[in-house]
Amino acid sequence: MTGQRGKETLFDAMRSPNGLPQMARNACHICNFMTQFVVYGLAPHLKDEMKARYVRDIKPGLDFIDSVKGLGPDVTGRRQVQPTLTFMTSDISSKTGCYAERLGDCRGPVNAEHVVSRVLLDAIWEGARGGRVYGLTFLHATSENPASIGIRALTSHILCEGHNSGSSSLDTESAKLFRAMERLVLAENKGEPVATNSYVRGDLVERWMFKTLVNGLFSGNFPIPFTDSFAGHLPNDEALQMIFRGAPIPKGQGIYVSHERSLVDHQVFRLEVVGYPQGIAGLRMWMLGSLFSLVLTDEKDVFPELQEATYRPGKLITAKTRNALMLSWPDNFAGETLEIRMSDGPAAAE
Questions:
Q1: In the chain, pLDDT over 90 holds for what percent of residues?
Q2: Which domain holds residue 194?
């Protein structure tokens, strides 16, 4: 207390409240994430109510946090800026119908592109024309009652012929990753072969996950937390450069891999869009018991699995047979080794 002016008592802060609004926001986001996790996983019929409650109850609280005066600047006087966590713009495709049209080099017609790569679906449903699917916006299906659908039906008009064929190496690498993961799991269950290696380009897998995420958003096929749809919305220039030109993903962003039994399930393949109220933060991919998290933000609270995850691992190795998946990354990044321990086998592909 420094003194009085009339009846007003003046105080000097004994410690700076710098960062308090962001900490409050982070706590709120963690609660939102856990609610979303429970609702989407166990009570999908409550999705609409969850979104309505966010707009009615949660959003006003966040606005209040942002409105508190005197807590925004840090000790250097710089203004704290809330990050924008989405790479999707408000611009609607009006030229070609290709979401990569901002690159200015579209070629050929916009054909039906598989939202999830055809070569990967062929690897998952090997020898079959399709399988059982749930979670897509156009399907009335649940995990307990999935829909039977053909591979040819899982398409949308989202890319021109040039950008579709020009990114085929990303699709090929996704199937290569699946087959390598499948060999690891099968060999570990059977106990042979021993100490054999597979090689996959991690940077192409990152770009493929980013492309698949945009495929699902632009087509409107992927359900999105906290908003209705990004259908028809174009990604920004930075995203397109990363996906189609191989521009580097910022350091600390990209793929994290975990194989904690408490964090992953043993579904053969599953995707989940990760979002904050401000936008899209990334994509989760479960593949044969391992969780690949594509992180596209520096605000990582929405990815609680990162506490037990390995950033861009250089090697995934099985505990018993010591078979390994070797992953290469940009700039000769030498990631750590992640050991995979099997508790039980993966569920059968559907």
A1: 51
A2: 88-340
